[in-house]
Write a structure and sequence with these properties.
Radius of gyration: 15 Å
CATH topology: Aconitase, domain 4
Structural class: alpha/beta
CATH class: Alpha Beta
């Protein structure tokens, strides 16, 4: 986790995005579940057929990914690959109106920072493709801050950090495996 996080809004989604929207299931996908590079090709496939390619190109250009979502983001099944596969592609932050509980826990375990809009109306101010800077993210996590300023194309948007001390430590380590290895 860098002191200051820099990236790009790679996708902006509506309310009630399910884990099926994020990581589709089915006979074509299930055989790939142990092949993370292969299964990652299907992340957000139903919403943006080119998301995996666009994410890879952004990473090559030095960008990390942020996904913006509405209410109840990640509802549905507790599919871990809906967090693991986006992380593999370079998605490191999700900024939404609200998270489904189990999906939020999965994001933390795989090192994706779950932030919520302090003012849900700010969702309308964030556009896909925007450049994002989150200054002091690591210190905010480890220091127990409840809010952080997310700079989106130079405009300030307040985000809530609703995480336990343990979850903050996991995120600062880059995910649950890194955290356990350091413990």
């Amino acid at each position: 986790m860098p002191a200051t996080w820099r990236g790009k809004v790679m996708l902006k989604l509506a309310d009630n995005i399910t884990t099926d929207h994020i990581m589709p299931a089915g006979a074509k996908i299930l055989p790939l579940r142990s092949n993370i590079p292969a299964i990652s090709e299907y992340v957000f496939h139903q919403i943006n057929h080119n998301f995996a390619r666009e994410m890879k190109e952004a990473v090559l250009d030095g960008h990390k990914g942020l996904v913006v979502g509405g209410e109840n983001y990640g509802q549905g099944s507790s599919r871990e690959h809906a967090a693991l596969a986006p992380r593999y592609l370079g998605v490191e932050v999700k900024l939404v109106k609200s998270f489904a509980r189990i999906h939020k826990a999965n994001l933390i375990n795989f090192g994706i920072v779950p932030l919520t809009f302090a003012d849900p109306q700010d969702y309308d101010r964030v556009e896909q493709g925007a450049e994002v800077v989150i200054a002091g993210l690591r210190d905010a996590l480890l220091g127990g801050a409840e809010r952080i300023t997310v700079e989106v194309d130079g405009k300030a948007v307040e985000a809530v950090i609703d995480l336990s001390k343990r979850h903050r430590e996991i995120l600062a380590a880059g995910g649950l495996l890194n955290w356990a290895r350091e413990a």
